[in-house]
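ugh ok fine here u go
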Amino acid sequence: MFEKVAEFAAASRLEEDEIAALQAILADGKLAAAGRELAARCMVPDPGKLPEAPEGGDFSRIRYAAAFFAAPKIPEFFAEYGFPERVMLETMTDLVVWLRNEKKHRGICGLNVRAWEWQVELYRARVTRHGRLECNSEWIYNRETLKDAAGNVLLRPGDAVINLHIPEDGPMRMEDCFASMRRMVDFFAKYRPQVDWKGFLCESWLLDRQLRAMLPGHSNIVKFQDLGPHYPVHETRDSVFRIFGTPEADPEAVPNPTSLQRNAAKFIREGGRFMEEGMFIPKSVLS
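structure:
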């Protein structure tokens, strides 16, 4: 399965230009060989630290080839967990999010380092997609004990949670997020019944409450931030990457900036530092 470009393209929902770009890469013997080697080193039971490669057009294209050569191994990892094919196919569509980000901001049809590392997690079934959101197949809370405003313990180190991720491929409508979380509840009940999860957890640049001053009050991001108590994680450059497209982007030189980009540029200009925050979402939000 997925050994042919057409099969891989259909499962990943590639567009014609993305298929053509992949075919061109595979026709280049050097790039194809490097992609095959990278896939072989990553798609093994215990790869350890993933091989690193510097940024650049060729390396971006090599990672795209690696995604193709890795694909035939995907069913093995999903079968090991006992996950169904429909979840596997939905998870594979994450690839186009990163391909289109690279095309938009670098003019290359390929994958940056971060995108390739994330694809390995997805392809190995460590992360799965369920509608608008993704989640880890297993995750243990490993930070300080988290309490609510009244002092009640919400999470202790070692507690299992459903760890959420927010793909960059559309609006965060709350009804879609809730539907996704409900699907995860059913998924864990059927395929991960041994996990005694305490609630949902999310750690993201999107949870930085400093963003609230840069967004309208009706923003879906603001609404999502209100789902549960927060805790600080660390300062992050991920916000610059997510808002402006590349980690090295000049916030003052973005053509046709959005209101968020304008506000974020002003925030940076005035010495602001973005933070990644975590949020615990109790099961009761779905009641």
